[in-house]
Amino acid sequence: MRDPQRDPNYLLVPLPRSQVIMFEVEQKYPIDNAGAIEAKLIEAGFRATGTETHRDTYYNHPCRDFAQSKEALRVRRINGTPRITYKGSKLPGTIKARRELEWELGPGDASGENTEELLRHLGFRRVAEVGKTRNVFQASGDVASNDLTVFSVVIDEVDEVGRFAEIECIAEKEADIELAREKIEALADQLGLHQTESRSYLTMLLEIRTAAQRSNAARDSAGQ
What we know:
It is a single chain. This protein is an alpha+beta fold and 224 residues long. The chain is built from five helices and eight strands. It has a single domain (22-223), classed as Hypothetical Protein Pfu-838710-001, CATH 2.40.320.10. It has helices spanning 34-43, 66-69, 113-121, 177-191, 201-223, and strands at residues 22-30, 46-60, 72-78, 81-87, 96-104, 125-139, 148-158, 162-171. It has an eight-stranded antiparallel beta barrel, surrounded by four helices. Strand 4 and strand 5 form a beta hairpin. The longest helix is centred in the C-terminal third of the chain and has 23 residues, at 201-223. It is globular and about 55 Å long.
């Protein structure tokens, strides 16, 4: 029997029959001028598909630290509609790639509260909530490869963190990961995106909050 404490790729949730394990391949870039990037995307053959509001609540495993294993478990609400996502440990390579499981929780749990209550009863600890506004751009058929299920770019305005562009491919097979990485690098060059950010939004948010707490504590100590 596989030990969830020792095996970082142990699945935390049962896999529905309709759910396929995909490989998420993505790279994010800090940006200043979102409008310029969006104009380049349209010129490159992408189309704007809408604006989303995300509220992502992250949980940590009761028996191992996801910050160390580089996994993630979250309940994401997109415009209020909840879904649960598990991301496995990062695979080797300069551009982040890892297995991903995700599905919507409705209609049986239309608010996501039942799932979060279950996680709490199982010992999962709430870490933080990350909020953002996301503008989504989808590749046209001429831009996307048949080997990649999704090829998209998003412009994120992340609460307390900043503004980023993220290029993402979803590969159905592990053999397609290198193709996805090549397409991400090529598009980043085309968009003039060269400074990368490897940290997750959750990690950046926690680091910012920790630094603020230390600064406030130092200021309070100096005032005594």
